[in-house]
Write a structure and sequence with these properties.
about 120 residues, alpha+beta, Aspartate Aminotransferase, domain 1, 5 strands, about 40% helix, globular
Length: about 120
């Protein structure tokens, strides 16, 4: 299978029930870090700040992942703790409401720590 060449193609290749979630995550991250550009890296959507990778997100069968976990204050660390899965990965189960506001906070923290 050929990797998608754009985030639009990546989202379009995802199951229909995941496409809206991925689009909303894309918008949420772009609102928190409007000066980013989009790319596909390692076969998944990536937002770049200049030439630096700011945040990756991916849709899976049962969850959405966001990578890497940014430097964060104590309140944000506490809020993301239930979603931590492995080194540097956050997993948001599709069986539960996606915390878009929290994802926006994660993107803003990533923007702050890498900007």
């Amino acid at each position: 299978m050929t990797p998608p060449q754009s985030i639009d193609a990546y989202i379009a290749s995802s199951p229909p029930e995941v496409q809206d979630v991925l689009q909303r995550i894309r918008r949420t991250v772009r609102e928190a870090a409007p000066d980013t550009t989009e790319a596909i890296t390692y076969g998944i959507p990536t937002l770049l700040l200049g030439e630096r990778h700011l945040i990756y997100f991916a849709g899976w069968k049962r969850h959405i992942s966001i990578y890497p976990i940014p430097a964060a204050d104590a309140a944000l660390r506490k809020a993301i703790a239930p979603y931590e899965s492995g080194k540097g990965t956050l997993k948001f189960p599709l069986s539960k409401p996606i915390p878009y506001e929290l994802i926006g906070r994660i993107a803003a923290a990533a923007r702050k720590s890498r900007g």
